[in-house]
From TrEMBL:
It comes from Artemisia annua. GO terms for biological process: L-leucine biosynthetic process. SUPFAM superfamilies: Aconitase iron-sulfur domain (SSF53732). The keyword Repressor does not apply. NCBIfam families: hacA_fam, PRK00402.1. The keyword DNA damage does not apply. PANTHER family: 3-ISOPROPYLMALATE DEHYDRATASE, HOMOACONITASE, MITOCHONDRIAL-RELATED. This is 3-isopropylmalate dehydratase large subunit. CDD domains: IPMI. Gene3D superfamilies: Aconitase, domain 3 (3.30.499.10).
Length: 505
């Protein structure tokens, strides 16, 4: 009898009936042996749908870091891309722009007297529209304060005296940097926030993503979210980082390569010798802008650099995860960073990539150094390094907006390497920059008309921020070039988009 007719005969014996002498051989061998002996043991492969996945040996299905975090958070042994799972949230952050909406959803759905699922896992950070006389913006902070008092929220970084931020010891500044500095970012955890750049925290080896007010309201009440497991793109960055490049150049290169939709609902995992050499703040820059490529989250595995940063910031135990060698990726991109040059993103999209040196005829009206992307201590040290290399003063108004109160203090206390002990603030003052302003999101997202450095006229601005859509920093006719702090400082000195190598020897 032919094999094909055996298979079509519908025999119902399974391999679990194989006699002991057949044990240890493959299904194909058993079928062949059985046919030769005219004794049919089985003609179909064993069902596998109900078999538990193996956890040891070479047949184990590997998982990426993101998949492992989803599996742990959903209390499953394994998850796969595309699967919808209920995950337990470790930290939920909301700020003054979205907090009132999220709180409104929470109260509407759970009741006016409902309590949040865990008052120590909710972080409230006013940061966007703080230093303004706009009554509605001020009211938003009041709503956060009332909710914090009502719910006994442990981590509410309040501000009451807007005239002098230093009079508010609890006030921090930009949420994404404050989360890291205050120890809320921990490897292996799930952090969600009502801000698209919550993905910044992926630098700590955790799943971090932005969510909407409805999801936030639900999570406030339950501590859970229904999320789809994202597939992962792998970016291998190798080579020693040239001294004229920063992480901002790396992420602009990647977004320019894959486009603003190239990572839609995907995890972007960064590995390689270059990534390993980056500081935590530079890693945060890399992960911060994955959302500009449509990414669900960015992630970098925790290592000695991560653990050192966290030493004095958190006492909460955490458990890092690492991608398996046999993990599956949608695609892998390899970048030799030694071949890259300083970049800008031209108006009006983060993927409109251009070489800084090829935009040297673009005349600027202003330069802005700040935001979650470019307002960290190391960003200002980088800008100061370029300004220090020149005796010239800036040719256009140059605005300095530190991300947090701690960064503001660093500007006045941390000496710039090679400066003979000078601080960033001294170097900025000598170069003719505007004095460092109160820590906040500032003009990065426009906001009320009186927000510091908001573009109220159709000007051309080079900025260390993360988005250059029309109207992003205020005026809808404004043009925004995104660049690294190196390029921002060099451009401030010339009044034109400038390759920082002109000042770095």
């Amino acid at each position: 009898m032919a094999t094909s007719s055996l298979i079509s005969s519908g025999a119902s014996l399974f391999f679990n009936k194989i006699s002991q002498k057949d044990a240890g051989v493959s299904p194909a061998q058993v079928i062949t042996t059985s046919i030769q002996q005219k004794k049919i043991l089985s003609v179909m492969a064993p069902q596998t749908s109900e078999r538990k996945p193996s956890t040891t040996g070479s047949v184990k299905t590997g998982m990426t870091m993101t998949e492992k975090i989803f599996a742990r958070a959903s209390e499953k042994s394994k998850v796969s891309p595309g699967e919808n799972v209920w995950v337990n949230v470790d930290v939920l952050m909301t700020h003054d722009v979205c907090g009132p909406g999220a709180i409104g959803v929470f109260k509407k759905e759970f009741g006016d007297n409902a309590k949040v699922w865990d008052s120590e896992k909710v972080v409230l950070i006013p940061d966007h529209y703080i230093f303004t006389s706009d009554e509605r913006a001020n009211r938003n902070v009041d709503i956060l304060r009332d909710f914090a008092n009502e719910q006994n929220i442990k981590y509410f970084y309040d501000i009451t005296d807007r005239g002098n931020f230093k009079a508010n010891p609890d006030y921090k500044g930009v949420c994404h940097i404050a989360l890291a500095q205050e120890g809320h970012c921990r490897p292996g955890e799930v952090l969600v926030g009502t801000d698209s750049h919550t993905c910044t925290a992926g630098a700590f080896g955790q799943f971090a993503t932005g969510i909407g007010n409805t999801d936030a309201g639900f999570a406030l009440g339950t501590g859970k979210l229904l999320l789809k497991v994202p597939p992962t793109l792998r970016f291998v960055l190798d080579g020693e980082m040239p001294d004229y490049l920063l992480a901002k150049d790396l992420i602009l290169q990647i977004i320019g390569e894959i486009s603003v939709s190239g990572a839609t609902y995907k995890a972007m995992e960064f590995v390689g010798s270059t990534v390993e050499s980056l500081s935590m703040e530079e890693r945060m820059t890399l992960c911060n802008m994955v959302v500009e490529a449509g990414g669900k989250n960015g992630i970098i595995q925790a290592d000695a650099t991560t653990f050192k940063y966290l030493e004095d910031k958190t006492s909460v135990p955490f458990e890092p995860v690492y991608s398996d060698t046999q993990a599956r990726y949608v695609a892998e991109y390899r970048i030799d960073v030694t071949k890259l040059e300083p970049l800008v993103a031209k108006p009006h999209s983060p993927d409109n990539r251009g070489l800084a040196r090829e935009c040297k005829d673009v005349k600027l009206d202003r330069v802005y150094i700040g935001s979650c992307t470019g307002g960290k201590t190391e960003d200002f040290l980088a800008a100061a390094k370029v300004l220090l290399a020149s005796d010239d003063k800036v040719k256009v108004p140059t605005f300095i907006v530190p991300a947090t109160q701690k960064v503001w203090m660093d500007l006045y206390t941390v000496p710039v390497p090679g400066s003979g002990g000078k601080t960033c603030s001294q170097i900025f003052e000598r170069a003719g920059c505007e004095p460092p302003n109160s820590p906040s999101c500032g003009a990065c997202v426009g906001g009320p008309l009186d927000i510091y450095a908001r573009m109220n006229e159709p000007q051309v601005c080079l900025s260390t921020t993360n988005r250059n859509f029309p109207g992003r920093m205020g005026n809808k006719e404004g043009q925004i070039y995104l660049a690294s702090p190196y390029t921002a400082a060099a451009s401030a000195l010339t009044g034109l988009v400038t390759d920082p190598r002109e000042f770095m020897h």
